[in-house]
Design brief:
mainly alpha, 83% helix, elongated
Length: 128
């Protein structure tokens, strides 16, 4: 591995570690906001949905960072670490798929889903 590749791998590793906190905190905060919005209609609206989209987008960014880091460095994070990353992407898709069936409880769906994503990110951080 060349010096440039080594530096890139180290930078990606550090950013992937740091960004895992962003993923966890953003999804936990989104879950809290969505849970509050279920009980207080004043918390609903475009800002909530924009924040939920941004929080869930962090999952995709984190997985892409992890895949690029693994390919560049050759470091094996382990099968469970990979499983939690790709399960998080699947969870986002499942949450999105149920939004119409649970339209009357949409905020609860997104609260539970966001807390689940935060939990997956915690578990993935513990494994690394």
């Amino acid at each position: 591995m060349s010096l440039g590749s080594s530096l890139l791998a180290v930078s990606l590793a550090g950013f992937h570690d740091w960004f895992s906190w962003v993923v966890m905190l953003a999804n936990a905060a989104a879950g809290g906001w969505a849970l509050g919005a279920h009980f207080r209609t004043g918390l609903r609206g475009r800002p909530l949905w924009a924040f939920l989209i941004a929080a869930q987008a962090t999952v995709f960014v984190q997985v892409i960072l992890g895949v690029v880091y693994e390919n560049r460095s050759g470091v094996d994070p382990g099968d469970l670490h990979r499983l939690y990353g790709f399960a998080a992407i699947a969870a986002v898709a499942i949450i999105y798929a149920y939004r119409i069936q649970l339209a009357n409880r949409r905020e609860l769906l997104y609260a539970g889903g966001s807390f689940f994503l935060a939990g997956l990110s915690i578990r993935a951080m513990i494994l690394s």
